[in-house]
Amino acid sequence: MNRKANITVIGYPKILSSCQEVAEEYFNKANSLYYQYLPETNGVKYISSSPNHPLKDAAKSFNQINHDIIIVGTVTAKLVAGVDENKTIPFRAGYKSLIKAFLKAKEITDRVAFICFIEEKHDIQFYEKLINIKIDIYYANHLDDYRLFCIKAKQDGHSVVIGGSYTFQIAKEYGLKPVFLFSDHDTFHDAYIRALETHRYNQSLEEKVSQLEIISQESLDSVIFIDNTHHITFTNKVAKQKLQFDADTIGGQHLSELFDFIKPDMLQKNRNSEVIGTLNKEQILVTIHPVFVGMRTVGTVLMAKQIKEIAAMDTRVRQKMRHRGFRAKYTFHDILGNSSVIKQCKRHARLYAASEAPVLIYGATGTGKELFAQAMHNKSSRKLFPFVAINCATLPSELMESELFGYVKGAFTGASSQGKQGLLDQAHLGTLFLDEVDSLSSSLQAKLLRLLQEKEFIRVGGNEVIPVDIRIIAACNRRQNENSEDNLLRQDLFYRLSILYLQLPSLRERKSDIPLLFKHFLSQYDSELTGMIFPLSRNIIDSLTFLPFTGNLRELQSIAVRFSCLCSNKKICSDEYLKALLQSCCTLNTDQTKNSQNSATSLFDGNSTLSASMKMAEKTILKLSQKRCDGSIKCMSNQLKVGRTTLWRKLKEHDIN
Questions:
Q1: Which of 19, 142, 217, 487 sits at 20 to 30 Å (Cα–Cα) from 469?
Q2: 95-181: which CATH architecture?
Q3: Is the pTM of this model over 0.85?
Q4: Which CATH architecture has domain 5-90?
Q5: Residue 197 phi/psi, 5° resolution?
Q6: For 324-473, where are the alpha helices, taking DSSP H only?
Q7: In the chain, what's the furthest Cα-to-Cα distance?
Q8: What is the pLDDT of residues 381-394, one digit of tens each?
Q9: What is the pLDDT of residues 545-598, one digit of tens each?
Q10: Whole-angstrom Cα distance, residue 17 to residue 25?
Q11: Sign of dihedral through CA atoms 98, 104, 110, 116?
């Protein structure tokens, strides 16, 4: 809300009394002070104020008050010290005031003298014809001229003089009949309206200037204002500090004295531009912003920043950008279960979280390996830094190497010309989670072993050793035994990764948690249905826990989704309905198990030889593996634990495409 304006009126008694009458109508918008002009001293004397003016009488010396706007005659304004012309509103006689004054004079005589300020131009012939009166006009340039023109008007045979309050006062002294030019109150209404508009404009301008000053002073850049003559008019504190400008002498200096690399023609452009130069032996980037008022350039704003600052900022931004999206969102509170086996796993994992040693998590598919990895990260001292996860079975070894370690520019055909940071860079200070780590090629496992031992790596195609501070949590869904030849992990890497070992139970090993987990998954899709059917009856729980759950939590979640889609709210009161529905939702899973068993028993029909039956079994297993791996040779090789060459030979032998 805008504050009330402090409006000061300066003049002679006649005009002040008229102005006070009008000012009462602007009581809620302005505080008014009235000062009488004293010709003998060229000074002013306080007369009165509006009743609610906040200033005390003792403080109402003209020079002690903040005058937002001053209403004063044009000549008087030039004589009174301390009057700011930017805050001045002159009394201005409109056509209505003139006509009213001429008509009043016409009642006395047909010939009048009109004394006014020289800067006011009036169409006297128009008023003479309109009112049928002879008007002799006298243009005053100084206060003394008003007295001289009163004397001259009397010498010229005039008996009536029209003018302002000072003319009104002098004319009486010389026996002339004065007619007050500003007898119409519209003049004072016009003055107050213009004063309030000017106050609002000045206040808005002050706010904008204040905002601009705050922005420029708080800016991280060095800000310099230049006028049209290329002289400095303002510099913010950053410029004085970082560019080592002398605060006492910088104002008024020519631009060329400071920035010799900025040529005058650069300031003539009507668009923003940039230039790099040297100041105080430091390279700086200067952005040139021309300032326009309409189509005219009124100055220039320079914004300077040291090149080393830009480089440091770029590094910080890159660090923040690379961390974006690599966050662990799960904690130990998200791992549900009350069974003793899952509680023990959570207890061990919490203890592991406090360590910096690598962790190897073993668990069948769907048992929550990444969930435990994220929970350990969020419990560790690295929780504020990235958690980067990758499934090692998703990419060929060549791509996996560049994805993990990154590469330098030109490392291989198709590589980015800028090179690329790897996941190790992005996991710096945080945790790298390697799922299905046993899918890595032997050469990649060797590089990973070196990373664990030396805490450093080399990018693909590079020769620079890069130190890195990360913790590695690895996971696999096949059990790794110390002395087994079937292990896909190198023995030395296995020992290094399994310093801390965590084995997650399958869902069949924690049957008591199945109802709780089913309720959790069901509530994610239909919380209303969950509230209506829980707690489940013992018959329904038994039918649910009887399932083999080879897919573990993922399988249970899919059953919950199917159940929420198929369940009818009208029948949920029937245990028989819920049990039958649950069994139908589980049919897909049980049928798959039965089919796999039936297919195995049907391989031998009693008439085949052992060799033929074994070939048939081998073909069936190859087809089943091909289907599960979507034809991926690498996946089949890992799944069947045979080399790729052997696998290709077997597929060709059994005519499997």
A1: 487
A2: 3-Layer(aba) Sandwich (3.40)
A3: no
A4: 3-Layer(aba) Sandwich (3.40)
A5: -65, -40
A6: 340-353, 369-379, 397-405, 423-426, 442-454
A7: 152
A8: 999 888 999 998 88
A9: 877 888 889 888 888 888 888 887 777 778 888 888 887 887 654 444 444 444
A10: 14
A11: negative
